[in-house]
Amino acid sequence: MRILEKDSGDAPQFVPFVKETRRMFEIDEVSADRTRHEAGFFLCAVQWYNSRMRLPRRRTIWFIAALLLAVVVGAWCFMPRSRITQVNFDSIYDGMDEAYVAAILGDADQISYHPRVVDLQIHDWRNGASFIRVTFRDRKVKDKRIHRAGAWETFTWCAKKGAAKLGVKWN
């Protein structure tokens, strides 16, 4: 019985692998004329090309791009619409009853009371960084205000919310 070294390539179980590896790294004899005229300028002397590891074809890339576009458009179509719009804000007028405002905007996200004035309530409706704030006195609209956040403000608001979920403090 013959004991093989650890890195020995002549063991029977390694013979197919050694032959395949040797075949992949054989160097062909390449002359300058043959390279230029028969095989082109980019003939590689080492034959290691693996046909199973080719780049995706053009139609595969177009298919992936179309699929990604369909997912983005579908997500945009099924996203819930914001109630913080200029149309909803313009439909609220001074003297309007609190129930009518709730019918337009839904239930308020936050209700606060003024500490010095007894019948003064401030209702906030929020969607991300945008909000509508309506001040009621005796259950009638006294004042209204809208803040529509831009793209950068919305992005930073989302980033701060995400950081807070991860436990990171953001100033």
Question: Which descriptors would you attach to this protein?
Answer:
171 residues, alpha+beta, Beta-lactamase Inhibitory Protein, Chain:B, domain 1, 4-stranded antiparallel β-sheet, 4 strands, 16% strand
Give a short synopsis of this structure:
The protein is α+β, with helices and mostly antiparallel strands and 171 residues long.
Rg estimate, integer Å: 35 Å
Query: Could you give a short account of the major beta sheet?
Result: 4 strands, antiparallel
Query: Mean pLDDT, rounded to whole units?
Result: 78
CATH architectural designation of the largest domain:
2-Layer Sandwich
Multimer state: single chain
In DSSP terms (H or I, runs of 4 or more residues), the helix count works out at 6
Shape: elongated
How many separate structural domains? 2
Beta-strand content? 15-25%
- Total strand count, please? 4
Strand order of the largest sheet: 1-2-3-4
N/C terminus separation: 74 Å
* Helical proportion, percent range: 25-40%
CATH topology of the largest domain, which one?
A: Beta-lactamase Inhibitory Protein, Chain:B, domain 1
Backbone structural class: alpha+beta
Following the backbone from N to C, one meets helices and strands in this order, namely HHHHHEEEEH
Report the CATH C-level class of the largest domain. Alpha Beta
Q: List the uncertain runs.
A: 37-43
